[in-house]
Amino acid sequence: MENSRYSETFDFERKRQREEALRLKNARTGINLFQGSWIFAFVALIVANLQLRSSSPAWPPLGVEKLEPLLPTIATLGLVASAVFARRGFRALKRDDVRGFLVQWRTALALGVAFVAVMAFEWLTLTPLPEVRLRLANGVETMGVLTQYNAMFRVMTAFHGLHALIIGIYMWNVYRGIAHTTPDSCTLWSVEAGAKLWYFVVIAWMLFYVVLYWL
Amino acid sequence: MASISVPMPGVQATPRPKLSEYLRWSVHHKIIGVQYMATALFFFLIGGTLAMLIRWELLTPALDFSPTGSAYNSLFTMHATVMIFLWIIPFWAGLGNYIVPLQLGAKDMAFPWLNAFAFWLIIPAGVLMLAGYFVGPPEAGWTSYPPLSVLFSGDGQTLWIISLHILGVSSILGAINFIVTIKNMRPDTMGWFQMPLFAWAQLATALIQILGVPFLAGGLTLLLLDRVAGTAFFDPSRGGDVLVWQNIFWFYSHPAVYVMVLPGMGVLSEVISVHSRKPIFGYKAIAFSSMGIALVGFTVWAHHMFTSLTPELRIPFMVTSFIIAIPTGIKIFSWIATMWGGKIRFNSAMLFSVGFLSQFVIGGITGMMLGAIPVDIQLHDTYFVVSHFHFVLFGGSVFAIYSSIYHWFPKVTGRMLDERLGKIHFYSTYVAFFFTFFPQHLVGMQGMPRRVAEYAPEFQTLNIIISISAFVLGISTFIILFNMVWSIYKGKVAGPNPWRALTLEWQTSSPPPSYNFKGEVVPFEDPYGYGTEASRVYLDEMEKRLTPANLLGKGGAAASPEPMTGD
Hints:
The complex is a heterodimer. Chain A is an all-alpha fold. Chain A is 84% helix and 0% strand. Chain A has helices spanning 2-55, 70-94, 98-126, 129-138, 148-180, 185-214. In chain A, helix 2 (70-94) packs antiparallel against helix 3 (98-126) and helix 5 runs antiparallel to helix 6 (185-214). Chain A starts with a helix and ends with a helix. Residues 1-5 and 128-138 of chain A have low confidence and may be disordered. Chain B is mostly helical. Chain B has a single domain (19-552), classed as Cytochrome C Oxidase, Chain A.
């Protein structure tokens, strides 16, 4: 009798561990599926861009300046570097190197903020915002102010920037959590998830970057 | 023909969850499944009412109660959108939620919280959609083609877009949940090819959703911006292109028709095998053809745009459209071969599945006709198209939904549906369905355009036949609704496994306890190994395990006084 009771508690512990492992495995598969799935929303915008381009006589249209790639290219390099730092931060935490994690993750976040700031600047300077605001306020159509070329740029960068912001805020939250408490297996997962989502942001931007500046 | 309805005496060991549990947030997959299905049925009634109004309007060639053509436009727009996005798709999500974890021997879905979240997105989306009808209804059809959807429709169109966005998020979350559950949560003894075909079908459906819905989300974002932010992506007068929307929309929405029918095909694979008492014919062929449909489904979208496509692009899409008939045909022949020589029980579930077979084949063949470019150019935007997709979506999806209700109602509620009412429901639905939608082929061929409230007087005779059949079809729906409500309280107690089915959801009490399975889950080596000695031994063993005494640990509850007999 004693024996069987002992084996029951043993089973319970093993079952708990198995369920914990399954939960992690599920979460990993889930994040991978989300990445593979949601990238198609970005692909849809690329398709729209390419089709508008092909149905337009000139791209960019006559009288519209082609986008200047210098500053965005630097920002893109920074974004790629931030993904590397995010990954190094995750690996540091895996080795229980909390300090190393904080340094790497801080760098990644700073680079991310710089990227979003640069792209927001580009977004605002591409066409003067007051004109757009005026048109929205009184609802009068001002033909040709926002060409397809510029509108597509605005939508794509804004759509991407929104994702960068949301995921960046999530990463910042994770960072703050670890800076103030001792990490456990659960926080290790949230760091992994944050890093994976940040790779998603980077890959989505690489697609957009090529389409917007180099095609 | 002799048919056995209920071969096994029933007991109901587990009490049903209380009604109040269905009305609040719950992360339990069986509760969520029922919530989904009940919500979907509610929207089915709304969509059906709209259909009745449409048929009423079409009784005479002139405008009857719609003040303008626009009012009629918003009627069919709402009808289509409600039926597709709030009835068929959520119903399959709900059935999958209830059945798939049980079939896999799992305790719950992989992400219970996400599951509940995905369901509760449906409610605000449905409210927004219906509210849109009253604040300047959308008029652009469920396809929402610009410029109609940008320049002419009212604010309801904006709500429509937002509502679809929300439903899209719900679909993606649900689909991720299904894939992860099916991939990771099977018992060790269940390999991919011991998995029930319903789970395979849900897997293929979920794959379509995760690849397709984000695409629609991108397109909807652009459409929304065109409406509210002054962009002109779809406005040719300002350098936009309406075909951008058509491409993006159909790249999602053609696969979406497989989202609506693939789970139904999964239901057929279960129902036909169980009620023919025979192993399913071509298990792997059916499983892989689901995947094939999911894959090829993404290559056919432009056949909706034959009339606006350059001629040299039409041919490849015609070819892919024909190719997709192959996996579908494989399934159809596999089901027929499964029934061949079986000891068939023609109960309501089986009747609706066989009904699916016959009607879906008609819908499939008219699909092939429309896939041929010369025919499509002639029949584009006529009632022939309407007839085609109603044969696929009503004769296909809705018949499969009915079949699934008759098949799994005993599992969900612990009570059998009334067989006699079920048969009345089947025959009235089948006949009324046929006379509602088959004559539409004829008026279509004669040239009656779809989406018009006023038509040429020579079409009136057929339209009267169609409308009257449609009213009968509408009334026949109430038979199953009454049957369900009545049977929940007064139906015969079902017992754990009234059909003596081998899949895992039947190897626990009806309704299953909240933890689903007591003790270790033992799947049978072949989920469709009916008619073998090993399966008989397995079922007898499970029957012994599932006596009320074993399930409750003592006395047992609600044992039915006399064993049930077949008719």
